[in-house]
Amino acid sequence: MFIFMLVGIVGRPSSGKSTFFKAATLADVLIASYPFATIKPNHGMAYVKIVDLAPEFGKVSNPREGFVKNGKDEKGKIVNGYWRFVPFDLLDVAGLVEGASQGKGLGNEFLSDLSGADAFIHVVDLSGETNGEGKFVESGNYYPGRDIEIIESELDLWYLGILKKVWIKFARTIEMEKSNFAESVARQFSGLKVTDFDVKHVVLKFGFDTEKPSKWTDEQVAKFARELRRYTKPMIIAANKIDRPNGRANLERIKKEFDYPIIPCFAEGELALREADKHGVIYYVPGADSFEMLKNLTEKQKQGLDEIKEILKDFGSTGVQDVLNKTVLEMLKYIAIFPAGDKLEDSKGNILPDCYLMPPNSTALDFAFRLHTDIGKAFVKAIDVRTKRAVGKEYVLKHRDGMEIMTK
Question: Where among 305, 330, 355 does a domain terminate?
Answer without folding.
Answer: 330
